[in-house]
Design brief:
Blueprint lengths: L1 H12 L2 H17 L6 H21 L10 H23 L6 H4 L9 H26 L10 H26 L2 H15 L16 H9 L2 H14 L8 H25 L3 H4 L1
Helix pairs in contact: 1-11, 2-6, 3-4, 3-6, 4-6, 4-7, 4-8, 4-10, 6-7, 7-10, 7-11
């Protein structure tokens, strides 16, 4: 187990520049395929947020979440989700999409999930810019607690990298994993506090148990952390048990991913 973790960690650490170059190449390739290029890195999430706000905020007349209006509350939460969802979905194909490379040359395969996450992290930055503009228009001004978003961004990266390590190997074993994950991601969004609070009121049977189960979702910790940094001036130190639980899950997922990657690293060519 420790040997596999050391192998993946070392291979990624020694290939940071290669990860950066591949992620940059993938980004530029996407931009070359469209006439407006980087415009869509901003327009796509903006359209998604506008759609959810139109449906839930306007059509359904969604009330403010506590003292926070629904639009800024939605945008901040969706900023985290806009990084998590595509990172995990694209992470499934991280190795499979590069079979033409790994079959022709000696290549550090374990860095491929990190390249996907690095690429999506750029898109996350575009979404954050939209988020800050929206917050400014809604009357919010930067505070020291906003720095906490950096911590939760690191949490998000560590989580999606760990999940992508696992899924990239499983996809090489079973191609249907990609379609399964694509279907499950929509369900995961509704079980995360992206467009609603993920909180059951007293009128719901077993509401305390259901609320506890919702908090076991690692995405809950990330999305809620983004909002607490912006709206409620709280840090991860205010939730020590949730923080310990989250990093315990991430470490477990990373160890599993490293073990799978180390076990099958020489067998990927035979799986094509």
């Amino acid at each position: 187990m420790f040997k596999s973790v050391k192998y993946v960690w070392s291979e990624n650490l020694h290939n940071l520049y290669r990860i950066y170059c591949i992620a940059k190449y993938e980004l530029l390739a996407d931009m070359r395929d469209s006439k407006f290029g980087i415009f869509w890195n901003f327009a796509s999430p903006a359209i998604q947020v506008f759609t959810y706000w139109l449906i839930f905020g306007i059509a359904w007349q969604r009330k403010p979440i506590g003292e926070v209006e629904y639009l800024p509350w939605l945008v901040v939460g969706y900023a985290a989700w806009w990084f998590i969802q595509p990172s995990i979905q694209s992470g499934c194909s991280a190795v499979f999409s590069k079979t033409n490379v790994i079959t022709k040359m000696k290549f550090p395969v374990s860095v491929l999930p990190a390249t996907v996450c690095a690429k999506e992290f750029f898109n996350h930055g575009c979404m954050l810019l939209i988020t800050f503009i929206t917050l400014f228009v809604c009357g919010y001004r930067p505070q020291l607690y906003w720095i906490g978003m950096i911590y939760y961004a690191v949490c998000a990266f560590a989580f999606v990298e760990s999940v992508s390590l696992i899924l990239s190997v499983l996809t090489m074993l079973w191609r249907d994993v990609r379609k399964l994950i694509t279907s499950l991601m929509r369900m995961l969004m509704y079980f995360s506090p992206v467009i609603w609070e993920c909180h059951f009121g007293a009128g719901v049977p077993h509401n305390e148990l259901l609320n506890t189960i919702m908090k076991l979702n690692p995405v809950y910790y990330i999305v809620n952390g983004y909002r607490e940094s912006i709206f409620y001036c709280r840090t991860f130190l205010d939730h020590p048990l949730q923080t310990i639980y989250f990093w315990g899950i991430v470490v477990l997922l990373f160890v599993i991913g490293c073990s799978l990657m180390y076990k099958f690293k020489t067998k990927f060519i035979d799986m094509i």
